From TrEMBL:
RNA-binding recorded as keyword: no
Domain of life of the organism encoding this protein: Eukaryota
Signal sequence extent: 1-21
Organism this protein belongs to: Clupea harengus (Atlantic herring)
Cellular compartment(s): Secreted, Extracellular space, Extracellular matrix
Protein name per UniProt: Mimecan
Keyword field: Disulfide bond, Extracellular matrix, Glycoprotein, Growth factor, Leucine-rich repeat, Proteoglycan, Repeat, Secreted, Signal
Biological processes, Gene Ontology terms: articular cartilage development; bone development
Family the entry assigns: Belongs to the small leucine-rich proteoglycan (SLRP) family. SLRP class III subfamily.
Length: 294
């Protein structure tokens, strides 16, 4: 705000001084050009500032030794205990109220970092995390979104997410998962595209139980059968898998021709072995046909 005021006054000053200058002496032909030039420069500066403010804060890159809390910080009295908990993660990552951004962290991040209390949004994309344990999120019931895209995760302990009662969006895309852990009940969006999932790695009712799930992304895996889908689902992506068949019950209710599945608006099944033309009865409850091979 201060800078804006300053800018405003300097522009006014420039304009008036130019005006005086022009009144005093006879206007020279190139003076008008000068005013335009100066104004443009100011404008440029102003635009640049606004642009820079809109950008995300840059993360700090620190060396491995900084992972430990420096001694001089321990001497700081006010809220020292809080600092003890939060500093290591918030040195490597950017912590803003409720959000933690740990993207492409150097040195390599191979485990989930200790999170500040009350964290609601965690973005830990493009790191080298290999494993998620039951302890990683145990104390952070406030989490609403976790994004672990582009790590090396091949193993997730079964209870790692199951008790996160506020978790709405979970993204595990681009990892090395061959099976999924238990998913928390309030999920609305789940993404495990680009993994190594097979049908035997999915619990039969893993998704059906999630009564708020609206977006399910499982493309680019090795899934052989369409999983049971909850009534709340709006979009399901299963392209680039190994699905070779389906039944009249997959999307619809085979014995009830009056049933209409209102919520489900997009089904993607391209690049699967299944020939959808063989299952005309499977789509009668849908408002639009799945994308795929006919
Ligand atoms: C796809 O499924 C078939 C059996 O239906 C199996 O023989 C084949 O190995 C699977 N391919 C992949 C890439 O998993
Ligand atoms: C329709 O099928 C469902 C299971 O798919 C079953 O519970 C129900 O009893 C069947 N209804 C009739 C009228 O056959």
């Amino acid at each position: 705000m201060m800078d804006l005021k300053l800018l405003f006054f300097s522009v006014i000053f420039l304009c008036t001084s130019q005006l005086f200058a022009r009144e005093k002496s006879a206007p020279k032909p190139n003076q008008r050009k000068d005013v335009a030039l100066v104004t443009n420069k100011e404008e440029l500066l102003f635009n640049n500032r606004v642009f820079m403010e809109a950008k995300k804060p840059k993360k700090k890159v620190v060396t491995a030794t900084d992972y430990d809390i420096p001694d001089d910080l321990d001497q700081d009295s006010g809220g020292a205990q809080k600092r003890d908990e939060e500093l290591p993660t918030c040195l490597l990552c950017v912590c803003l109220t409720g959000s933690v951004y740990c993207e492409e962290v150097t040195p390599d991040m191979t485990t989930v970092p200790a999170l500040p209390k009350e964290t609601a949004y965690l973005y830990a994309r493009y790191n080298k995390i290999t494993r998620i344990t039951n302890k990683d999120f145990a104390d952070i019931a406030t989490l609403r979104r976790i994004d672990l895209t582009g790590n090396l995760i091949s193993d997730i302990e079964d209870g790692a997410f199951s008790k996160l009662d506020n978790l709405e969006e979970l993204t595990l895309a681009q990892n090395r998962l061959s099976k999924l852990p238990m998913l928390p009940a309030k999920l609305t969006a789940f993404n495990a595209g680009f993994n190594l999932l097979k049908t035997k790695g999915l619990k039969a009712t893993a998704f059906k139980k999630l009564t708020k799930l609206a977006y399910l992304y499982l493309s680019n895996n090795e899934i052989e059968a369409i999983p049971q889908l909850p009534e709340s689902l709006r979009i399901v992506h299963l392209q680039n898998n190994n699905i070779s068949s389906m039944t009249d019950e997959t999307f619809c209710k085979g014995n009830n021709t009056h049933y209409i599945r209102y919520n489900l608006e997009e089904i993607r099944l391209e690049n699967n072995p299944v020939d959808l033309a063989k299952y005309p009865q499977s789509f009668i409850c849908l408002r639009s046909l799945p994308f795929g091979l006919y």
